[in-house]
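Example record used in the benchmark description.
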Amino acid sequence: MKLDISEIPFSRFGSYFCVSQEKDSGEIYIRDVHGGDDAPSKLFKLDLLQDGVEKKFDILATETSLRFYLVEDLEKYAEIIIPEEDELQLETKGVEVRLQASKVKYDTLHEYEDGMYEYHIYPKELKLMISKLSGEMSVHAPWNVIGNDFIDIRMKDGHFVMESYRTVFKPKKYGSFEAGKEKVEKLYQEWLENSTEKNEVYEASIDRAAYITWSSIVHPDGLLKNYAMYMSKLWMYNIWSWDNCFNALHLGANYPELAYSQLKIFIDTQDESGAYPDFVNDKFVSYNCIKPPIFSLIYEKLMNMNDYFMEEKRLREVYESTKKVMKYFELYRTYEGRLPHYKHGNDSGWDNASLFHRGMPVEAPDLASFLIRTHDILAKFAGLLGEEEEAKQFTEKADDLFDLLMKRLYDEKGFFGRVGKDAEKIDIRSSLILRLPVLIGYRLDQKVMDQLVDDLVENFETKYGFATEMPSSPFYKENGYWLGPIWAPVTYLFVDSLKSYGYSEIGEKIREKFLNLTLAGGMAENFDPHNGKGLVDTSFTWTSSVFLELLENK
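Model output (structure tokens):
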């Protein structure tokens, strides 16, 4: 695959290093994604020089190597590989690479030994060792009391290494550039063969999705005790709850341990209240927003695809953790006589959906549906674990919540929400989120389910699938995040529900539309529902995982 590093960063499995190009300026940056997307990621701006003069260059990027070559002489180039998780190597031939540090006040670089420089990066609590294995390297980094005024590193006609670490540098022997290149190519081919099936029609999408999922994984570090798949290494480099489940789903068949790790991240950081974090990275855990429960729904599917997830200890861990989540919603998100509520649109994952335009808190039918389905699944898990009394209790809770949902949030026009301390009926009904009770289609009367499906087809279906806001709505907005664009995980939930509860034809139709959407818009965070253009972050793992899952499970 020819990689466009302005859309998909160059990286590899397990590494925090990546290289990307700014779309507006065209500038190339070597970056590091430690600390999540609130931390600065740019390490060095990269340019090619000859005789001290900047030269124009083109880029040839594949899944495993990144070459910058002079427009006027293709034999003169610099090439980057990431042969080890914390090791970036650079080779230059006939050109000089200039690296200009994106430093802040206390960032400092000093000579460690001949041909070796240690760079302390304060905001990231990270150190780099930059070493010359062969060739010429010069450094200009004038000192000014508390740090370098600037850092300018030149590398020419040789082999150079940049290695990251937290505290102390541990010397080691480095292999040849070619050996490193061969190693990472082998690793990627193994991933490609194990995670995808060949399909000529969707070959371009498969290539993108396979690479994005592989290259967006980081190794255990800090708060991350297991390998973790970030949502992206472009902009959104955290692991978000809810999102992580769709990545786990696709990994489950061939990489069960890695799949379970994506769930374990949140089980291990679960608050004593029962809430899962909103997101986690190697340095930080945030509980600002609490997503609706989906772990058990995904785990049930994982159990059906791989016996690894049937193991009692693992099932018990998910079961007990999910019980705590449900207790959180019962104790801290429910006013007496009402359904559990959201405190912000971000709680739902549908940040700016029109349902939330009247204020907070909001009783929403999607949250009730997730909770009902989770109680039903917990009843099943309880049975498997021999907890018969608890199984009955979960079924009773599901029954009670379902009755309350139909009483409080449904009328002859369909589902709606309630807002504020007086639980006023929300008059805005144009968001796709209000149609998510398809998740409990097995509980809904046929008439109600038919009404939901007819509504979906008549008011939300577009060329590429279900828009998240009715295109006819005054709230619909082009590139409006949850006010129109199509999202992969929501599409998966609708496709799965429609095909599971008697509406296979429309479910298959939406599935095929989404597969075709990726040919138009790649693996973006979300998509224009009419022209398929990829929007916001153009290198997203949950889109990639959903695409691969829908492709392989017809």
